[in-house]
Write a structure and sequence with these properties.
220 residues; Hypothetical protein af1432; 64% helix; 11 helices; single chain; mainly alpha
Length: 220
């Protein structure tokens, strides 16, 4: 694989510094270490799939800076990321490719349009892998705690959200999130590498839920 051009490596280093500074103290599970893991997974998958490593890594580094959970609303977040890319003198085609990924990669109740590029599928897989398995479980409860949500309430069943707005507005217990998102992700992975990792992480979540319900009921 050819070495990345110096100007691209410079912009990626700036993007890492920017994301690290903005998300270092984020307590909802969308912190810098999440970005770092997604970036690392995106690198691996991009190389496996022959995707544009520069675009994949840039989108992975900046994706949560545009998320409504961080920016307050998506339009504001996306504008800030676009302005940052332009300020770094990223070529217009690169800006558009990165912004297309960022604008469509979040789950939002499963109501997003499908990714149209290989790079988008790579970054979406990397982000979704970090939402499942042991780390995904930890992040889920970190997010629920940051929003003051109950752990579990057997009287509040999981729901299929009809829109992204309904999904974001939900304040359901954290356990519901497994059924409303996390357990759905294994079947929504795009790439062979992500599907392989998702199998084990999915099984870990199923085992966790079985243990959770047994302990909740006082069975062990």
């Amino acid at each position: 694989m050819s070495e990345m051009p110096e100007e691209q490596a410079h912009v990626l280093a700036a993007a890492e510094e920017h994301a690290r500074a903005e998300l270092r103290h984020e307590g909802s599970g969308h912190d810098w270490r999440h970005i770092e893991r997604v970036r690392n997974l995106a690198r691996i998958i991009a190389r496996e799939e022959g995707a544009d490593l520069y675009i994949c890594e840039m989108a992975a580094l900046l994706h949560d800076l545009a998320d409504a959970k961080i920016a307050g609303d998506e339009a504001t977040g996306q504008r800030r990321v676009r302005d940052w890319l332009v300020a770094q003198e990223v070529e217009p085609s690169g800006v558009e490719r990165v912004m297309e990924i960022i604008a469509t990669m979040s789950f939002a109740g499963g109501n997003r349009p499908p990714m149209t590029t290989l790079e988008g599928r790579v970054v979406q897989d990397a982000d979704r892998l970090d939402a499942i398995g042991a780390v995904g479980i930890a992040r889920t409860f970190a997010y629920g705690g940051s929003r003051g949500r109950l752990l579990y309430d057997p009287d509040i069943p999981p729901q299929a959200h009809a829109s992204a707005e309904a999904y974001h507005a939900s304040d359901a217990p954290t356990i519901n999130h497994f059924y409303e998102k996390l357990l759905l992700l294994k079947e929504r992975m795009h790439t062979p590498y992500a599907r392989r990792l998702a199998e084990a992480r999915h099984a870990y979540m199923e085992a966790f839920l079985a243990e959770f319900y047994a302990e909740w009921a006082g069975e062990r």
